[in-house]
Amino acid sequence: MDEVELVRRCLEGESWAFDELVRRYRDRVYGMALHLLGDRDLAEDLAQEAFLRAYQKLTMFDPNKGSFSNWLMTLTTRLCLNALKKRTYEQQWILEQTDETYELIETSDHLTPEEEWQAAERRALVRQILSTLQPIQRAVLLLRYGEEMSIQEIAQILQVPVGTVKAWLFRSREALRRKLKEAGLL
């Protein structure tokens, strides 16, 4: 059953339909929150908040304007960015490795154990470097490469012009590239 049908059934009072939407998207929502926030507990809380808000605002979802998953990721991203704005101090986060995280470096199925260990170390370092970027830089990189969203979709999510997203994406890639080069990964 597709997501539009699940939303329709949920709006008709069939609670199992929303449970199915949560099951389908909980890992993506939690993964995005974890990457943006860098804190497992806060990411879990905000993921729950995203689903609660989605349920409360389900009548606002318009399948003619995009997919439910993009709409849900919009809610999640905005909640996370708002939570980061509320922080009164600057903090650097070390993202922990989990099964739900996005991998920025491709891995091969044909690696030796030593190469696999080196690749894991490299991924951990990339996650650490990614976590030092500004929240909006992490958000655009994760939406573009983690969620594979188009620039237009990201502009809708962040409610900014397409040109702004392009500029942010360029600056984010440059900042990531510079930090990877400083770390000897490029």
Question: What are the salient characteristics of this protein?
Answer:
186 residues, mainly alpha, 8 helices, single chain, 69% helix
Chain-wise SSE layout:
Blueprint: H1 3-11, H2 15-37, H3 40-56, H4 68-86, H5 113-131, H6 135-146, H7 151-158, H8 162-182
Helix pairs in contact: 1-2, 2-3, 2-4, 2-6, 3-4, 4-7, 6-8, 7-8
Account of the protein in words:
With 186 residues, the protein is mainly α. It has one domain: RNA polymerase sigma factor, region 2, helix turn helix motif (Rna Polymerase Sigma Factor, Chain: A, Orthogonal Bundle), CATH 1.10.1740.10. The protein has eight helices and no strands. It has helices at residues 3-11, 15-37, 40-56, 68-86, 113-131, 135-146, 151-158, 162-182. It is globular. It starts with a helix and ends with a helix.
State the fourth-level CATH superfamily: RNA polymerase sigma factor, region 2, helix turn helix motif
The separation of the N and C termini measures: 44 Å
- Give the overall silhouette: globular
Which quaternary structure do these chains form? single chain
Number of helices: 8
Which CATH architecture?
Orthogonal Bundle
CATH class: Mainly Alpha
Summarize the structure.
By secondary structure, the chain is an all-alpha fold. Helices cover 69% and strands 0% of the residues.
